[in-house]
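Researcher: Good morning. I'm working through a list of sequences from a screen, and I'd like to move beyond sequence-only analysis. For each chain I'm collecting a predicted structure so we can compare shapes side by side. This is the next one on the list. No need for commentary yet; just the structure.
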Amino acid sequence: MMTRKDSAVAGTSRAVQDYLKNLFLIQGESEAGEPVPTVTTTQVAERLGVSAASATNMLKKLDGMGLVSHGPYKGARLTEPGRKIALEVIRHHRLIETYLAEALGVPWDEVHAEAEVLEHVISEALEERIAARLGHPTEDPHGHPIPPRDLGLDTSGSGSMLPLTELEPGCRGTIAEVSDRDPELLRYLGGRGFFPGTIVTAVSSEPFGGSITVEIAGAQHAIGRDAARRILVTEVSP
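Model: Good morning. Structure tokens for this chain:
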């Protein structure tokens, strides 16, 4: 069994882990669900809520550690060692979210904040116990994939997902993922049934950036475009 000593995150600080995790998330996801090759300093700073100067300094440090490839005006991308650390932290995070939701009944809008803290401190032995207790889940409560124990993560299927805003009126889709970064939004969406696995039918779309209307289990819901962009669906049929 993998131990903390030989785990990918061994010897790295919480700050390093946070940067690598968020680089992975930004690099693998854009608003349209398409991967991006490199990440800008501005994107990193905005994601982590730090100054551009702080982000630049950390990216330089990570480059020196061999965890990130970074250069002036070229953006940043994870190296393979950096990617492994990012995936291990994400595995911790999403397993914790799933355990809190399924075993302890913590609402899906609260598990993210708890996991942000615990992801850095659990041992690999506890991680494996959590995974085994849950039956080795592949997705967290928000539909995001949980990296497997070998820290491989196939993102090739992400291209088959599209934001809810792009589902044409009359077409059906299944909710695949919901952004977990805004607890208030999760409470709003959860109260209207926008959970992973739910089938939605696009009904209409208001012009000039107005709201869209979808149907879930016979009930119609109008939802703003900003919220709808944070819901990824797989198209089912016209």
